[in-house]
Amino acid sequence: MNITIRQIELFLSLMRNPHIGAVAQEHFLTHSAVSMAIKALEQTVGERLFDRISNRLVPNENGKILMECLEPAFEQIRDVETLFKRDRMAGVLRVGASSTFADYILPQVLYAFKTKYPQSQVEVLNFNSEQVVEQVESGEISLGFIEGDYESRSAEFEEIYKEELVVVTADKYLAGSQEYQLSELLDLDWILREQGSGTRQTMWNHLGQSKKDLNIFMELEHMEAIKSVLKNPGTLSCMSPFSFQRELAKGELFPVQLEGIRLKRSLYAVMNRQKYRSNLLNQFVFDVREHLAKMLPQIAGEEE
């Protein structure tokens, strides 16, 4: 078998983006050069790796199986290239992140990482936590960051932080007057994230039977939209402390104290168990963990 590194590189690029023109441009090749490389690879393995449907390339089952085999090996080859240059972190990392991570945690990490490792490229895709796990399971992304606990047969979860969700409102009197039993707040207008989000799931896990009486007035996909709606009287939400620090400092949102309930959760890095953990991946997880440790005090082990 005579598979070349170039064929593997082009094949993996086409599996991620099955458009020959785009892949040719990415690798500074002609359209015909990419086509010839893929045809040569298919001849070597003895199977078609893409279906040709209406002049489009569509990855088939053979291609997906081969990708699972070749992608970890190709990343190891990339690591060999930088084995004696540990400070030269290079490569492309596709990361899926829940909204809390994508909007409030990762931007500064990405800036610092790119400054420190200019030959690295980290692409962040925004999903809710449930979708991040699904993307890791399918191999669509190399790494995920989520909030809350999820089960998976093929993904592993590495806890990188602990936090406590906060019930918030723009009503200063409501927030500051007293500690509330949860039952006293159920009838107010709650503005929540959609089902599948880590924040929504954590809240659900703590509410127990009370959740059936919760007045969910609106469900919104983005936290910035929720914060906008909270300007209306009688509205509440539940969110990560990372997501409303600016509004807290400006006196636009206020925490509501709950009696007897603490909405604790863990934040995780998520990886496929079969995925090779490259130097780039490991370093990025480390940097995210370090950044989190500096942002807000952890609640691990704290008890009132």
From TrEMBL:
Belongs to the LysR transcriptional regulatory family. The keyword Metal-binding does not apply. Residues 3-60 form the HTH lysR-type domain. GO terms for molecular function: DNA-binding transcription factor activity; transcription cis-regulatory region binding. InterPro entries: LysR_HTH_N, LysR_subst-bd, WH-like_DNA-bd_sf, WH_DNA-bd_sf. Keywords: DNA-binding, Transcription, Transcription regulation. The keyword Glycoprotein does not apply. Pfam families: HTH_1, LysR_substrate. PROSITE patterns: HTH_LYSR. PANTHER family: HTH-TYPE TRANSCRIPTIONAL REGULATOR, LYSR FAMILY TRANSCRIPTIONAL REGULATOR. This is DNA-binding transcriptional regulator, LysR family. It comes from the Bacteria. It comes from Halodesulfovibrio marinisediminis DSM 17456.
